[in-house]
């Protein structure tokens, strides 16, 4: 949801716990968009065992008919472009960070096979807690991730 030109996850969370009558008012006042990033099934076909690149390709085929409020997330395999997004989008639009997925990963329910890299100082008060920067390596690329807590050993996904 965009509030004052910035993404607001807090506004979305408020919408989800609002009474139905109030939610209808909010829909008119602050419309929401659905941004798709992965496809787990289509036309009754389970895609969870397929590599992410296959699932994403199928999603992009479907997305040719998308119109707002339905959108497709941007993706890149270019490290410099990802760094630019990470540097620019948090301040410009309130984007909280990036999601890093391996191209060959398959969807496994109940297990996280990706890494979320948060930008410091963006998001709700809860997500802006004091944290620690932790370096890690995903698919041969070094990243810096944010940990909520600064105590104990770092676990890099």
UniProtKB/TrEMBL annotation:
* Superkingdom of the organism of origin: Bacteria
Domain named ATP-dependent DNA ligase family profile: which ranges?
6-117
Q: Which Gene3D superfamilies match?
A: DNA ligase/mRNA capping enzyme
A family per Pfam = DNA_ligase_A_M
Q: Which SUPFAM superfamilies match?
A: DNA ligase/mRNA capping enzyme, catalytic domain
Record-given protein name = ATP dependent DNA ligase-like protein
- Provenance organism: Kribbella orskensis
């Amino acid at each position: 949801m965009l509030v004052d030109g910035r993404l607001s996850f807090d506004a979305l969370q408020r919408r989800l716990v609002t009474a139905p009558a109030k939610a209808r008012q909010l829909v008119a006042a602050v419309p929401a968009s659905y941004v798709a990033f992965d496809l787990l099934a289509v036309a009754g076909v389970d895609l969870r065992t397929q590599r992410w690149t296959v699932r994403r390709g199928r999603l992009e085929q479907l997305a040719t008919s998308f119109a707002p409020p339905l959108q497709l997330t941007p993706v890149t395999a270019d490290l410099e472009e990802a760094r630019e997004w990470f540097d620019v989008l948090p301040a410009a639009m309130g984007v909280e960070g990036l999601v890093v997925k391996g191209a060959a990963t398959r969807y496994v329910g109940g297990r996280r096979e990706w890494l979320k890299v948060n930008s410091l100082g963006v998001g709700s008060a809860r997500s802006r807690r004091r944290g620690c920067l932790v370096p890690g390596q995903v698919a041969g690329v070094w990243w810096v991730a944010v940990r909520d807590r600064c105590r104990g050993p770092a676990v890099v996904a």
